[in-house]
Specification:
By secondary structure, the protein is mainly α. It has two domains: about 1-75, Winged helix-like DNA-binding domain superfamily/Winged helix DNA-binding domain (Arc Repressor Mutant, subunit A, Orthogonal Bundle); about 85-225, Four Helix Bundle (Hemerythrin (Met), subunit A). It contains ten helices and two strands. It has helices at about 1-25, 35-45, 45-60, 90-95, 95-115, 120-140, 145-160, 160-180, 185-205, 205-225; strands at about 65, 70-75. Strands 1-2 form a two-stranded antiparallel ribbon. Strand 1 (about 65) and strand 2 (about 70-75) form a beta hairpin. Helix 6 (about 120-140) runs antiparallel to helix 9 (about 185-205). The longest helix has 22 residues, at about 1-25. Mean pLDDT is about 80; it is low at about 1-5 and about 80-95.
Length: about 230
Amino acid sequence: MAEKKRLKLSEQTSDRLYEMIVEEQRYPPGSKLPNENDLSEELQVSRTTLREAISFLVAQGILEIRRGKGTFVADELPAAGLDLTSLAGMRSRVRAKDLFEMRLIFEPATAALACRRGTDEELRQIQKKAQRMEQIAAAGGDWPLADQEFHWAIIKASHNEYMRRLYPIINSAVNEILQISQNRQHMQDVALSDNRMLLEFLMKRDESGARHAMSIHIKHLINTLQE
């Protein structure tokens, strides 16, 4: 119960941060957020809750963590003016299978584009995100957020602006489904295994292999949701 309450608080905190950045424009694109102590005090939450909220917005492409420098608002917000919280009612009515079928339409092609268009540095970032997810999962941490960051890195490497804008909506819905899924452990195992396969093709810039690997991954998730 305590874990569920803390999770809900981190989501509320991420929503509040989103409002401060996008709606109130208190922190313009490229600007640095206040330090962790000051921001957690302003939002009246613990630093742990704040970190979870920031991780969620990093996965959405709203924030970026620059090692040794701090947390910054992304130079280009993925969907200016989009209020993700307003989609909550819609997400609750959309069947999980439908959502993942939509991912099956877009994301395999996006993985292929990442092979073709991604810079060497972007591919290294994808690799780092995959390694981070492995570490977080092994430690029993919040692997879904780390997995979202891995997929967001692939989206960025595709250099497709429409996918950059669409992904936060998809990602937000996926996150809600994962929170209520009864097969979280199985989904974690599937994600880890499939991500290794996908990463191998991405690092080789094998477009066909990456396309098929992403397709297989999403089909695995659909099968898991039906169990």
